[in-house]
Amino acid sequence: MSIHKILVVGAGIAGPAVCYWLRKFGFSPTLIEKSSTVRKNGIGLDIRGSALDVVKKMGIYDQLCAQRTQVNLESWVNADGNVLVEKSVGYSSNDDVEIMRCHLIDILMDSIKEVPCYFNQEIIEIKQNEKNVSVMFSDNQTTIYDMVIGADGLRSSIRKLAFPRTTYNFIDLGSYFSVFRIPNYLKMNRSKIIYESKQKLISITVDGESENALVALNFRSSDILINSRDEKAQKIFIKQHFLNLGWECSTLMDYLDICDDFYFDIATQVFMESWTTGRIALVGDSGYCPSPLSGQGTSLGLVGAYVLANELKRANGDYISAFSRYNKLLIPFVNANQELGMLVNETFLLSDEVSQEEINIRTKRIMECLANSAYAINLLDYD
């Protein structure tokens, strides 16, 4: 049952993280990514709870803190751009880490410089037996591995190729989100502006002193986007909902047409009873996506990578034993964070007017749930 040569699919967050641990423990991981480069566009990501312990063990905590988001002021505005609420934001040295995706990706990739990493690699077939896993790539070349780890996100090709469709479910939470970068034409500095109207939320964030700003869109819609993976259709769909919404929406839609780092998806959770089959395992969003609404996807991926690699080390490469414990240890943590995602979804972009008292009650409930879910795993010290 000895395991040595491991293929890790997906150069997002969980993929590089699991490669770090695998190499540290003497395994031989190879990281592949179907895109031509790593995807760095995205909003600020949170690392909290047990995930903080993981990044400290990786020795990258100080680097993460040095790259924390630099947003000091948050403003909520109305359709005319008048400020409704304004508050100072920031962090203390003991707080959780919020970091832009691009900086987190750079730090994680830098931690695995000695791990072979190949881009433009797409898998079209996986076959496995008791001894190994045969992987065929899009160029029809086949390579044999001892194990394959799918860390390729919500729309995982590994999950689709290796797991029967009856073993996983997608829960559509009824909202869409998009992120893209624009010039900082509002001349913002270390700040975020938020506008919400008609079950739609827009934020513009400038991290530090930047010439660029990050636009994030979240919205609910009873309309169905037929071709959800077509970028042109995605942009048309967004324009239908935001073009005449007020504030800066018309200008933002103009920038949407010409942006070159556009990202769009549907808020979705992935439910599975087991994240392993034979010699194949899933980690991160590919196996247990909690949805962006939870704010816990990054932490889940980091913790999952730590547990999976350490259980392989603990079992001396006995993948059957390691996979069994990986599933058992992670279930409470995954369940708690997916429940958090559901709770946030119930209080997010509501159609009815909600009193400030009710908002405060819901916010308190979410923060209590977040505090519990962030530590909903007894993270073992494998040293």
Secondary structure layout plus pairing:
Layout: E1 5-9, H1 14-24, E2 28-32, E3 44-47, H2 50-58, H3 61-66, E4 73-77, E5 83-88, E6 97-100, H4 101-110, E7 117-118, E8 123-128, E9 133-137, E10 142-145, E11 147-150, H5 157-162, E12 168-183, E13 191-197, E14 200-206, E15 212-220, H6 231-242, H7 249-258, E16 263-272, E17 276-277, E18 280-282, H8 285-288, H9 297-314, H10 319-346, H11 356-374
Parallel strand pairs: 1-2, 1-11, 2-7, 4-13, 11-18
Antiparallel strand pairs: 3-6, 4-5, 8-9, 9-10, 12-15, 12-16, 13-14, 14-15, 17-18
Helix pairs in contact: 1-9, 2-9, 6-7, 9-10, 10-11
Outline of this structure?
By secondary structure, this protein is α/β, with parallel strands linked by helices. It has 11 helices and 18 strands. The model has no long low-confidence stretch (mean pLDDT 92).
Radius of gyration: 21 Å
**Mean pLDDT across residues:** 92
N to C succession of SSEs: EHEEHHEEEHEEEEEHEEEEHHEEEHHHH
Number of domains: 2
- Assign the CATH architecture of the largest domain: 3-Layer(bba) Sandwich
What's the story with the biggest beta sheet? 7 strands, mixed
First-last Cα distance: 23 Å
- Count the strands? 18
- Which fold name fills CATH's third level, the topology of the largest domain? FAD/NAD(P)-binding domain
Which percent bin holds the helix content? Answer: 25-40%
What is the 3D shape?
Answer: globular
Query: Uncertain segments of ≥5 residues (pLDDT<50)?
Result: none
